[in-house]
Amino acid sequence: MIEHPVRTHASREDLPREEQLAWRLAEVATDSVPVEPEVAEMIGNRVIDNAAVAAASLARRPVANARAQALAHPYRPGAAVFGAGPEVRSSPEWAAWANGVAVRELDFHDTFLAADYSHPGDNIPPILAVAQHRGLDGAALVRGIATGYEVQIDLVRGICLHEHRIDHIAHLGPSAAAGIGTLMGLDTEVIYQAIGQALHTTTATRQSRKGAISSWKAYAPAFAGKAAVEAVDRAMRGEGAPSPIWEGEDGVIARLLSGPHARYTVPLPAPGEPKRAILDSYTKEHSAEYQSQALIDLARRLAPRIGDLSRVAEIVIRTSHHTHNVIGTGANDPQKTDPDASRETLDHSIMYIFAVALEDRDWHHERSYTPERAHRESTVRLWRKVRTLEDQEWTRRYHDPDPDKRAFGGHVTVVFDDGTHIDDELAVADAHPRGARPFAREQYLAKFRTLADGVIAPSEQDRFLDLACRLDTLDAAEVRALNLTAPPGALGTPRGASENRGGLFQ
User: Which of 132, 299, 415, 432 could lock onto 314 through a cystine, CB 3.0 to 4.6 A?
Assistant: First the structure.
């Protein structure tokens, strides 16, 4: 790896574009190194993972509405839309939108955490949509996805957005644009312009993940993917981007991040070095914010030791700064302890999640979030006894430069009504590569079968998995068939709560 320094440059300095971060990322995208076999296999795993969580979300209103928007933009050759039949094709940017929402709706796919947060699997829908539209084969698709993961994860390692309350999709727009550039074999100049445009159009605040969280939490990454497709299209037509986009006097670093005097370092593969970043990311066993994964596993482990939950006086979770301030009591969001809160809010409340996991000794992507479940009296009582504290040691471990030592869990103290207590802690989730039950192909297949059951016919599941398990050898026709078709009754209703509400495109 090379360490690329990034800082603000005054306009009079005339920073050469070859020294700009956007250009360096474009060079990574155009470096045609072979994709290593273990990387290709993991890309197949993540395509399976995305499809699994998309299948489970097909009937949910936000997904149905996004799909309806895509289907209102038919195009040939176009790209497939999750759930729709093989004959249905939408323009690639709208297919990326609909499929991106389906993948993100349940907050149930892969993650990478470092200086910032990310769900790098969000790169797959826009890159796949363009591959299908342009008639590209599986080898090109795998190269494009490897770049998307590499660029996003490298940005997440080097640039913190959260401390300035900028949403993590500001790293996703550039990475998806870079991945599409690799997929299509575009030159460095075109990809450079597309990255700049994608960053400029996808920089937004984190209010989408704060307070009363709405369906936009799932829509925001899909919007970034759609914007990346459009950015590449414009750049291919010769249109440019703000430059330098990160380093400019009024650029992202100077005005939105740490200011004109800030210094960042972004690690990038050296020329000829394989793109392996996907291997440092990890998926979820549970449908909830990643920083809750280890704590769900810990709750399930603690429950038999606690026994009678009515005796619990207090539960204190000592954890990292990020966990405390994003999904814990450090967020100061009253919505996180409100039984009427949205599903999107509850999956960002470790107080709720830990209470339910203790009671049920399990976690389910639907049952754990129903209004009836959130209003259960015993749950509400237990939920409001849970609080989080930032612990400097857990914060240090969260940011450890050695990924083999990084920790995303916490230490839990359960205090009983007689003053006695029990303690336990867990550093990483069971499904993490260093966890008790790390995910490999077998576990991804099992997750897919579980989530697709009752939604996708078994024969259709088999057809899709046959393609996904040999992704890098697919021909163009097989890439176009890389989709799931669901029966009409599994697709939900594309409207709001009132039948009088619809969109501009009926």
Answer: 415
